[in-house]
Amino acid sequence: MHAVVVRVNVNDEDAATAALRDQVVPGVSQVPGFVSGYWTRKDNTGLSMIIFESEEAANSVTDRMREMVPDAVTLEGIEVREVVANA
């Protein structure tokens, strides 16, 4: 499995949360190879970890994720990492 780790700065908390629930989560969960996703927030920063079945699936979605970032957040980074353990 591989994870796509996304870091954002939240500019508008209410708008960001609405876009996350209405657009981002439904869009990402439809991607082939999607396993699970976790979106977190601390103060004005967001960090998500979205798990895919393979490195190929994770890599294939990174460009689409850049396009899915709502105006209420500023994208700080996206990276693909191998999942080496889970519980």
Structure commentary:
A 4-stranded antiparallel sheet has the order 2-3-1-4, with helices on one face. The longest helix is centred in the first third of the chain and has 17 residues, at 13-29. It is built from 2 helices and 4 strands; from the N terminus they run βαββαβ. The radius of gyration is 12 Å and the shape is globular. The protein has a single domain (2-82), classed as Alpha-Beta Plaits (2-Layer Sandwich), CATH 3.30.70. By secondary structure, it is of the alpha+beta class. Strand 2 and strand 3 (45-52) form a beta hairpin.
Distance between the termini: 13 Å
Low-confidence stretches: none
Mean pLDDT: 95
* Spatial arrangement of strands, main beta sheet: 2-3-1-4
The CATH architecture classification is 2-Layer Sandwich
Number of domains: 1
- CATH class assignment: Alpha Beta
Q: How would you classify the helix and strand content by structural class?
A: alpha+beta
One letter per element, helices H and strands E, the order comes to: EHEEHE
Shape: globular
Largest sheet: 4 strands, antiparallel
Work out the helix count. 2
**In terms of quaternary structure, what is this?**
single chain
Query: CATH topology, anyone?
Result: Alpha-Beta Plaits
The Rg value, from CA coordinates, equals 12 Å
Helix percent reads 25-40%
Number of strands: 4
Structural topology:
Blueprint lengths: L1 E9 L2 H17 L4 E9 L2 E8 L2 H14 L4 E10 L5
Antiparallel strand pairs: 1-3, 1-4, 2-3
Quick overview:
With 87 residues, the protein is an alpha+beta fold. It is built from two helices and four strands. It has helices at residues 13-29, 55-68; strands spanning 2-10, 34-42, 45-52, 73-82.
